[in-house]
Write a structure and sequence with these properties.
Shape: globular
EC number: 2.6.1.42
Structural class: alpha+beta
Strand content: 25-35%
Low-confidence stretches: 1-11
Family: Belongs to the class-IV pyridoxal-phosphate-dependent aminotransferase family.
Mean pLDDT: 95
CATH topology of the largest domain: D-amino Acid Aminotransferase, Chain A, domain 1
Order of helices and strands: EHEEHEEEHHEEEHEEEEHEHEEEHE
Number of strands: 18
Distance between the termini: 42 Å
Protein name: Branched-chain-amino-acid aminotransferase
Number of domains: 2
Pfam family, one: Aminotran_4
Number of helices: 8
Bound molecules: pyridoxal-5'-phosphate
Keywords: Amino-acid biosynthesis, Aminotransferase, Branched-chain amino acid biosynthesis, Pyridoxal phosphate, Transferase
């Protein structure tokens, strides 16, 4: 039986059955883990899980002890990579409460990803409720200071069938991982490698959605970047191999000497929520922002002439990473003398202050969970 994409009956009113773990991490062990969590290796005690099948629609919503999934070896996701995910963070405010940042935008993007990957779209209120339930039960895991609780919602095709078709069954889950400040002692500029051998996305492909397969396809290029002594890879368009697209997991901005910004247009890139937030903040402060194609050759010559002042990457995990150096098979060039620039740092502070509830939130981007 195929998936009926409009059958989401009853899902708007899903109630989560909350079953606290019988074996919570002892507070001393938790404090130890929170002291230096790094990124993506420490996990909280619980997870949220919701299941889908054609007969019941979305059902079985639970918050329970974090545990392994048991999957039949013929489970569809293991063979055809029908998988999508999201990434957002919970931030501890000075008053001890906890904010989410634009979870509605993640919920919408998750639904778009599901539709592109022929998966059952999860109603946006269920996505947000799952996250809020998990943050509430694992509130002790939200780090203070510049740390945050990284939330990873994801969905896998769970039908046991080797035929190539959209799975009839899905598991949606949310796990949480406390993370420290991405950069200790302020953001260090990153060096990036221009991938000329591998592309990330083509028109009509999956570049605009957050599916695991995009990352699988980017790893070889990222490994090449590391081999060349760079931190990250930047991809060019798949047709002309000239236009800058984005990094493996972050969007990119350019800052010019007239104060304007430019960023690659939507189409084959991932529509980042950080990207969108920066465009909004820039425009309301009177900064001109162009969403337009920009070539690697133009970038190189603008860096040489001084027309280009800064470049930075952006995404939920690191917020903003200044780009200090660009390396390619055709030579290297530095930006802003290899240092973090004031425009990148200014946007970084504006965003972080809103996320932690320290600055006015004119767009209603933050959502108080606690
Ligand atoms: C998640 C992601 C981004 C950044 O999106 P945010 O919503 O800002 O976190 C950029 N590029 C890719 C490929 C991504 O997967």
């Amino acid at each position: 039986m195929g998936v009926s994409l409009d059958t989401i009956d009853g899902a708007m009113t899903l109630k989560f059955d909350v079953q606290p773990t019988a074996n919570p991490t002892p507070p001393t062990a938790r404090t130890e883990k929170l002291a230096n969590p790094g990124f993506g290796r420490v996990f909280t005690d619980h997870m949220a899980v919701v299941r889908y099948n054609p007969a019941k629609g979305w059902h079985g919503a639970r918050v329970e002890s974090r545990a392994s999934f048991s999957l039949d070896p013929a489970t569809a996701v293991l063979h055809y990579a029908q998988e999508i995910f999201e990434g957002l963070k919970a931030y501890k405010r000075d008053d001890g409460g906890v904010n989410l940042f634009r979870p509605d935008a993640n919920a919408r993007r998750f639904r778009n990803s599901a539709e592109r990957m022929a998966m059952a779209p999860l109603p946006e209120p269920v996505f947000i409720e799952a996250i809020e339930q998990l943050v509430r039960i694992d509130r002790a895991w939200v780090p203070g200071g510049e740390g945050s609780l990284y939330l990873r919602p994801f969905m896998i095709a769970n039908e046991v069938f080797l035929g190539v078709k959209p799975s009839a069954e899905y598991i949606f889950a949310v796990i949480a991982s406390p993370v420290g400040s991405y950069f200790k002692g302020g953001p260090a500029p990153v060096s990036i490698w221009v991938s000329e051998n591998y592309t990330r996305a083509a028109v009509g492909g999956t570049g605009t959605v957050k599916c695991g397969g995009n990352y699988a396809a980017s790893l070889r290029a990222q490994a090449e970047a590391i081999d060349r002594g760079c931190d990250q890879v930047v991809f060019l368009d798949a047709v002309e191999r000239r236009y800058i697209e984005e990094l493996g997991g972050m969007n990119i901005f350019f800052v010019f000497d007239d104060g304007s910004l430019s960023t690659p247009p939507l189409g084959t890139i991932l529509p980042g929520i950080t990207r969108d937030s920066i465009i909004t903040l820039a425009k309301e402060s009177g900064t001109r922002v162009r969403e337009e194609p920009y070539t690697i050759d133009q970038w190189r010559s603008d860096a040489a002439s001084g027309r280009l002042k800064e470049a930075f990457a952006c995404g939920t995990a690191a917020v903003i990473s200044p780009i200090g150096k660009v390396c390619s098979a055709h030579g290297d060039f530095t930006i802003n003398g290899g240092a973090a620039g004031p425009v990148a740092m200014g946007f970084r502070k504006k965003l972080v202050d809103i996320q932690y509830g320290r600055a006015a939130d004119a767009h209603n981007w933050t959502r108080k969970v606690l």
